[in-house]
Amino acid sequence: MSIFRLLQATCSKPPSRLYSSSNFVPSCGLSCGRFYHSYEHDRPPPFSPTEDRILSAALSHVPTHGFTTTALTQGARAAGYLDISTNLFPAGPFSIVNYHLVTQRLALAKDVTPARHDPIKIPTNINKLILRRLHANKAIIHRWQEALALLATPTRLPTSLRELALLSDEILFLAGSTDVTSVWYTNRAGLAVIYASAELFMTTDTSENFVETEEFLARRLEEGEKIKSFVGGVGTWAGIQAGGFVDGMRSKGVRI
Amino acid sequence: MSFPTPWRTSARLTRRLLAIKQPYRCLSCSLRLAREEARQDAKTTHFGFESVPAAEKQSRVGAVFSSVASSYDTMNDLMSLYTHRLWKDHFVRSLNPGIHTSLFPSPNQPTSQTILDIAGGTGDIAFRLLSHATTVNNDHSSRVIVSDINPAMLAEGKKRSLQTEWASSERLSWVEANAEDLHMIDSNSIDLYTVAFGIRNFTDKMAALREAYRVLKPGGVFACLEFSKVHNPILNGAYKRWSFGAIPLIGQLVAGDRESYQYLVESIERFPSQREFAGMVEEAGFLLPGGMEEEGGWEDLMGGIAAVHRGIKPTEG
Ligand SMILES: C[S@@+](CC[C@H](N)C(=O)[O-])C[C@H]1O[C@@H](n2cnc3c(N)ncnc32)[C@H](O)[C@@H]1O
């Protein structure tokens, strides 16, 4: 089953201001629309101070140790904790992946001022926002395939997709496209497919300052604009795109 | 999930036993006792579903375990539907005891752990902790202190240790102690505190949790494996019928001590739910793991027949 279909199955409603959120609601998931949007800062922080200290330290060890238990243990040590304290994270190295995803999404929400609604500018805004988010992966991009492998494990997939959906919502909200437009990717599922494929592409991109990823993203968005949003056609197109893309990457030896 | 064959075999055995003997206590009696318990005197505590004075409980718990020490594995097999060894393996593996020094040494970092296995009677957990530290983490110096209130259980554990490579190792030691009073253990001296199938027997669980907090180093981990509450109502009904009905009778068969087994089964029923117990661990001062997990603070095994609770002692505050 393609990522798109999974997303489509879980997000029946179009995105709106209500969906965009600063952190996820664990018991709620994709299928429920009671998220608060970025303007509301009354949400509790997603990580406790201790989790924050250990996981951010662990993340700084990812370039050398990868998304591994070793990085987590080094994080605990750096934060003044014991090796055994990593029991605070039963999900193990996946906790570091999740920490990176959540904190980078929150950083986007914090640093970018939401655009005023202007349908003409939406594609450009989306392009800029995706690139901005992708650039936050630079330091760990050579390890990101390990993260993708962890994100794709069956037990983690619901969490992974929920986080991807939240990122899509955030980008749509910040781009000012909270109303329905005729461009198919201005919805949670469509944008998620484009983002995920660009992110994956970037893991094999060796070009200067990731210009090839930039071009790849531009092509995906351009293609998307040509397709008017009509039910069914969109799903089929995106399903084929995502499926074919994953197969293609697999044949290149990417572990997904 | 489906029950393994032992369920059917033992159900048949139960029917046979029931045909031979009149059961001397029935489920409905136990339920009646449970209801009466709501009106009980504040100075009493639970001995299964019977209310007994707190001071007496300790000695009665002692009596239970002396009489079942050697046939205790059989009971655990039956109560856990033959999976307690797997649970114990999982419990120890997920805790990952031992320090992997050779892989990434850092200066000023302790190179061994002191682990305290409470209610460790049979040594079952202790041997696994030592094996894991040694074979998985290549740690040849971390130590385990096995502690139990009952000298007969400790004797059983020592006897069993003779079958292991830890028989005369200085990495294994034995201490007779009530988990509610660990005065012989220094404060802030333990890296990992484990208790498997023990805490439900403690008279004052909060006192035991506070002692765990005291003896643990900052950053140290409290870990508890215990029978718990089954969430699925159908599975719960089946498991209750199984445990209340069949086990005491089989207990009588294997140990000739029906009362003790009845106590063991009923003490499971008495134990707080996963959520309540997680609340108690937090109240004792521990950080609970897994804010991002569905069930933060604990992990259910086989739909909640057992659960693992963990808490981390914070380094500040
Ligand atoms: C069911 S056995 C568990 C043995 C072992 N941990 C295992 O899992 O194989 C329960 C143990 O708890 C011990 N126990 C009961 N009350 C205790 C207390 N207050 N303090 C310490 N140990 C206690 C009993 O003596 C008995 O050995």
From TrEMBL, chain A:
Q: Which residues form the COQ9 C-terminal domain?
A: 158-226
Q: Where is the Ubiquinone biosynthesis protein COQ9 HTH domain?
A: 52-76
Domain of life, per the record? Eukaryota
Entry's Gene Ontology BP terms: ubiquinone biosynthetic process
What UniProt keywords apply to this chain's record, in alphabetical order? Lipid-binding, Mitochondrion, Transit peptide, Ubiquinone biosynthesis
Record-linked InterPro entries: COQ9_C, COQ9_HTH, Ubiq_biosynth_COQ9
- Give, as in the UniProt entry, the pathway in which the protein acts: Cofactor biosynthesis; ubiquinone biosynthesis
Q: Name one GO cellular component term.
A: mitochondrial inner membrane
The record's Gene3D superfamilies line, in alphabetical order, gives: Tetracycline Repressor, domain 2 (1.10.357.10)
Q: Where in the cell is it found?
A: Mitochondrion
Under the GO molecular function aspect, what terms does this record hold?
A: lipid binding
Functional note: Membrane-associated protein that warps the membrane surface to access and bind aromatic isoprenes with high specificity, including ubiquinone (CoQ) isoprene intermediates and presents them directly to Coq7, therefore facilitating the Coq7-mediated hydroxylase step. Participates in the biosynthesis of coenzyme Q, also named ubiquinone, an essential lipid-soluble electron transporter for aerobic cellular respiration.
Similarity comment: family membership: Belongs to the COQ9 family.
Output this protein's name: Ubiquinone biosynthesis protein
From TrEMBL, chain B:
Subcellular compartments = Mitochondrion inner membrane
- Cross-referenced Gene3D superfamilies, in alphabetical order? Vaccinia Virus protein VP39
Q: List GO BP terms, alphabetically.
A: methylation
Report membrane topology.
Answer: Peripheral membrane protein
MF (Gene Ontology): 2-methoxy-6-polyprenyl-1,4-benzoquinol methyltransferase activity
User: Which CDD domains does the UniProt entry name for this protein?
Assistant: AdoMet_MTases
Which pathway does the protein contribute to?
Answer: Cofactor biosynthesis; ubiquinone biosynthesis
Q: Where S-adenosyl-L-methionine is bound, by residue?
A: T122, D148, N178, A179
Which coarse location class describes where this protein primarily resides?
A: mitochondrion
Hydrolase listed as a keyword: no
Tell me one Pfam family matched here.
Ubie_methyltran
Q: Source organism's superkingdom?
A: Eukaryota
Its catalytic activity? a 2-methoxy-6-(all-trans-polyprenyl)benzene-1,4-diol + S-adenosyl-L-methionine = a 5-methoxy-2-methyl-3-(all-trans-polyprenyl)benzene-1,4-diol + S-adenosyl-L-homocysteine + H(+)
Alphabetical UniProt keywords: Membrane, Methyltransferase, Mitochondrion, Mitochondrion inner membrane, S-adenosyl-L-methionine, Transferase, Ubiquinone biosynthesis
Q: One GO CC annotation, please?
A: extrinsic component of mitochondrial inner membrane
Show the coiled coil region(s). Answer: none
E.C. designation(s): 2.1.1.201
Q: Name the protein family.
A: Belongs to the class I-like SAM-binding methyltransferase superfamily. MenG/UbiE family.
Q: How does it assemble?
A: Component of a multi-subunit COQ enzyme complex, composed of at least COQ3, COQ4, COQ5, COQ6, COQ7 and COQ9.
Q: Give the protein's biological function.
A: Methyltransferase required for the conversion of 2-polyprenyl-6-methoxy-1,4-benzoquinol (DDMQH2) to 2-polyprenyl-3-methyl-6-methoxy-1,4-benzoquinol (DMQH2).
Protein's name in the database: 2-methoxy-6-polyprenyl-1,4-benzoquinol methylase, mitochondrial
Species of origin: Cladonia borealis
